[in-house]
């Protein structure tokens, strides 16, 4: 019996007024289309494990070999969650020419759990998200994630400074509401098919 591949969808922002939740829903939909035999597990800095208030482990994460070796039980759970994933899709908006601080916290608590597994990166901003993409690629490589060609893209300014938002629950019909996603849809599915 073959086990289902687990793809961890690490979502680096949970701003209530932002577009990340909608982007994550779209990416989850595309993962299910591109990798139908996979299970998608979604992680934000606060769900299903709230790691934000937790102190960094007293031992450098680089020196921690097993998830069971973390002192903090919350970080131990986070380490087990990341370890069980076979691949990663990492999503973040670009904030101030970089990836989100929340995403950095998700990484700073761990190290070895990511190593040797494939991952793709998705960044976005009104300016294209390229700065966040480059920095995130460096970070992912440092953590031993085997990078698969990801993508960065622009979202319309009205989705950032106006009232428009990407639908938080994605369905194929939503592509008509968010036509810029329609243009990106095939490109995203192609990248995800390599996980």
From TrEMBL:
> Which superkingdom does the taxonomy of this entry point to?
Eukaryota
SUPFAM superfamilies, alphabetically?
Flavoproteins (SSF52218)
Classification via InterPro entries: Flavoprotein-like_sf, FMN_Rdtase-like_dom, NAD(P)H-dep_reductase
Q: Which GO terms describe its molecular function?
A: FMN binding; oxidoreductase activity
Instruction: Give every NADPH-dependent FMN reductase-like domain span.
Output: 7-156
GO CC terms for this protein?
cytosol
- Return the Gene3D superfamilies for the record: 3.40.50.360
Q: Which Pfam families match?
A: FMN_red
Which protein is depicted?
NADPH-dependent FMN reductase-like domain-containing protein
Q: Which organism is it from?
A: Eeniella nana
Q: Lineage of the native species?
A: Eukaryota, Fungi, Dikarya, Ascomycota, Saccharomycotina
